[in-house]
Amino acid sequence: MALEFHRTLPKGYILPTLPDGTTAPGTSLLCQRMYIGGVRIDHQGGPWADCQLVTGTQDPHASGELGLWGLHDKGLSGSRLMVSNPEADVAYGVVSLSDGTQVKATTVTVPGTTYRAWAAPIPDGRTITAVDQYDTHHNRLTHDTNWH
Fold first, then answer.
1. What is the C-alpha separation between 65 and 117, in angstroms, rounded?
2. Are 12 and 43 in contact (CB under 8 A)?
3. For a Cys-Cys bond, which of 20, 31, 86, 110 suits 90, CB 3.0-4.6 Å?
4. Which residues, at least 6 apart from 66, have a Cβ–Cβ distance to it below 8 Å?
């Protein structure tokens, strides 16, 4: 996975229309380019499918989400990626799997912004038992058991 930040909206990007007929707010674009086996997840949705509108370099709406992504069945089967856009105090995530293994992923930040993420690969046939996030002092900040 790679984070890609566009300070201004790229040529060819069209602002989404909201249900009330107005356009979505935002002056910049933050993209999570996720790949499995060299294939970009959401490639069918076009070049901006894995992007979100943000305002500037420190939009707080771009953090706090955790998701499971894959190429098949909406990420429910096959090889997958657990991706977090964590709060500022999260240094890394650990995904625990049903076979007892753990996958650790370190948070990276887009230079000059507050946008950050970590991504952990989940092998085919494995079940997630927990996703934990830690600070730089190894204190557990979150514990989530709602993923499979």
1. 9
2. no
3. 86
4. 82, 83, 84, 85, 86, 131, 144
2 token code pair: 């790679």
Residue type present at position 55: T
Q: Please give the model's pTM, rounded to 2 decimal places.
A: 0.87
In sign, the C-alpha dihedral spanning 72, 117, 96, 140 is negative
pLDDT in tens, 108-123: 999 999 999 999 999 8
Strand 128-134 to 140-144 pairing: antiparallel
> Side chain identity at 64, as an amino acid letter?
G
In whole angstroms, give the CA distance from residue 125 to residue 76.
10
